[in-house]
Amino acid sequence: MKIAYHDIYTHPLPADHRFPMVKYELIPAQLLREGVITPQHLFEPEPAAEEVILLTHEQAYWERLRDQQLSPREQRQIGFPQSPALTMREIVIAQGTIDIALHALDHGLGFNVAGGTHHAFAARGEGFCLLNDFGIAAGYLLQQKKVKQILIIDLDVHQGNGTAALFENKPQVFTFSMHGAHNYPFHKESSDVDIPLPDGMTTGPYLKLLEDTLPRLINTVKPDIAFYLSGVDILETDKFGKLKVTAAGCRQRDEMVFHELYKHNIPCAVAMGGGYSPHIRDIVNAHCETFKAGLQIYGDN
């Protein structure tokens, strides 16, 4: 197993966004402290090449982003003021997701400590997402003929609207999103399968929906690789999630995803996605449980 981590994931962020993002430092630190991983599991991605980004994003948007020419309106949609450091952060995250996907194809499982920037569209960013890392990695794998069919499993509490739009007319990438019906984004795009969840949904019904849906999708899509966005903003402690899933239920969700994929010998590339509980320990613990669940089921390869 390989884990993409780079200190640029955290440090370029504006001070008022640092609290939820400090998890990118704390997750690998906690896994190392607990002996779940060793330093050899961690690697620092390089920036993604421009030609790779352009497999997914429109050139005019990419050039505005690269050259710091985003309009004030575009910056408001994204939620961050533009800066070269933030752009570099997204480019590195994208390459990290490519790298862990390639590792997963050879060894079964790979993790990006960041990633899951699923609100970025081909020609615009929004929701704190500038570039779509799953989109870029999927485009790269297909262009390089590494795979023929991809399944994206997006279990962040927010719909992966950018991802859905990117692959709306591309049957090689099947998008599945299970998300809060009344949560951001308030205008939803159309994934191949969307399951909108009511506010206040608890652990049992949540897991039952996933159990009833995921095996069928895997059997139908028959992917060569799955990308899994394992957001922990489904937790009952989350400030914005509006769901009532327990920490144990979040771990069961991860185990279910990994078990179903492993059972069918499907490699899995994992990105962390969102988490906004008031106590950082709740966010970090839940994300660390995702790593532990993956290692438990796939083993350390």
Automatic annotation (TrEMBL):
<feature type="domain" description="Histone deacetylase">
    <location>
        <begin position="17"/>
        <end position="288"/>
    </location>
</feature>
<dbReference type="InterPro" id="IPR023801">
    <property type="entry name" value="His_deacetylse_dom"/>
</dbReference>
<dbReference type="GO" id="GO:0004407">
    <property type="term" value="F:histone deacetylase activity"/>
</dbReference>
<comment type="similarity">
    <text>Belongs to the histone deacetylase family.</text>
</comment>
<dbReference type="InterPro" id="IPR044150">
    <property type="entry name" value="HDAC_classIV"/>
</dbReference>
<dbReference type="GO" id="GO:0040029">
    <property type="term" value="P:epigenetic regulation of gene expression"/>
</dbReference>
<dbReference type="GO" id="GO:0016787">
    <property type="term" value="F:hydrolase activity"/>
</dbReference>
<dbReference type="InterPro" id="IPR023696">
    <property type="entry name" value="Ureohydrolase_dom_sf"/>
</dbReference>
<dbReference type="InterPro" id="IPR000286">
    <property type="entry name" value="HDACs"/>
</dbReference>
<keyword id="KW-0378">Hydrolase</keyword>
<protein>
    <submittedName>
        <fullName>Histone deacetylase</fullName>
    </submittedName>
</protein>
<dbReference type="InterPro" id="IPR037138">
    <property type="entry name" value="His_deacetylse_dom_sf"/>
</dbReference>
<dbReference type="Pfam" id="PF00850">
    <property type="entry name" value="Hist_deacetyl"/>
</dbReference>
